[in-house]
Design a protein that fits this description.
The protein is built from 1 helix and 5 strands. The protein is an alpha+beta fold. A 5-stranded antiparallel beta sheet has the order 1-2-3-4-5, with no helix packed on it. It is elongated.
């Protein structure tokens, strides 16, 4: 199971035969950091992953541009409603 918080943070939990696993993830810009711990009968296994997405940088810039354009459009719409 995974629970996403604002599409930036993730809390995870799972069950494999004989043991549980849980973890968390943080997503920022084009990086993702994931941590997981497996609780088996013998020991705790820790896992850490760092991911870099090459194409995400351009996508992030496009998202910011579209948000700015939308904000400008909303301001223009409010001014038009006043008139």
């Amino acid at each position: 199971m995974e629970y996403l918080i604002t599409d930036k943070y993730a809390l995870r939990a799972g069950y494999y035969p004989q043991y549980f696993t849980c973890g968390l993830g943080i997503d920022f810009y084009s990086f993702t950091i994931d941590y997981a711990a497996d609780f088996s009968k013998i020991d705790i296994i820790n896992r850490l992953r760092l991911t870099y997405r090459w194409k995400f940088v351009k996508s992030y810039e496009l998202i910011k541009e579209s948000e700015n354009a939308l904000n400008k459009q909303m301001i223009d719409l409010k001014n038009a409603e006043k008139v």
